[in-house]
Amino acid sequence: MREQTYRMEGLVKQLLTLSKIEAAPALLLNEKVDVPMMLRVVEREAQTLSQQKHTFTFEVDDSLSVLGNEEQLRSAISNLVYNAVNHTPAGTHITVSWRRAAHGG
After folding, report:
1. Residues 69-84: pLDDT tens digits?
2. What is the Cα–Cα distance from 26 to 33, expressed in whole angstroms?
3. Per-residue pLDDT at 17
4. Nearest CA-CA partner of 44 in 78, 71, 69
5. What is the spatial distance between Cα 27 and Cα 98, in angstroms, rounded to a whole number?
6. 59-72, pLDDT tens digit by residue?
7. Whole-prediction pTM
8. Residue closest to 74 by CA, chosen among 47, 105, 27, 36
9. Residue 80: closest CA among 69, 94, 101
10. Homologous superfamily of 2-98 in CATH?
11. Mean pLDDT across the stretch 18-40?
12. What number is the average pLDDT over the span 17-42?
């Protein structure tokens, strides 16, 4: 029951975020986003959602940030991790990486 409540809460938050994005004329994408901090939160949420059915590795370069919209970025990352947890078999290892590409891009 608790798992279903968390799942529904997550879905409602995603729908609200999507609604805000669609309603906004043009979002400013110049906010410095602390992605490493965001990923620590997403990692805790993923562990809770998984209920120890998956293992996780979050490879995070703490020196990297990005300019954008924090709410949108968090929604996108959370959605990817949510899908990984819910659409892979138990026992799957899920890796999330935040690093500079080798070619500098």
Report:
1. 888 889 889 999 999 9
2. 18
3. 72
4. 78
5. 24
6. 999 999 898 888 88
7. 0.70
8. 36
9. 94
10. Histidine kinase-like ATPase, C-terminal domain (3.30.565.10)
11. 78
12. 79
CA distance 40 to 18: 23
Cα 88 from Cα 51, distance rounded (Å): 14
- How much of the chain, in percent, has pLDDT values that exceed 70? 89
Q: 78: which DSSP letter?
A: H
The CA distance from 96 to 79, in Å, is 12
- CA-based torsion, 47, 83, 13, 27: positive or negative: positive
CA 73, CA 69: separation in Å to the nearest integer?
6
Residue 38: Cβ-neighbour burial (10 angstroms; 0-12, 13-18, 19+): middle
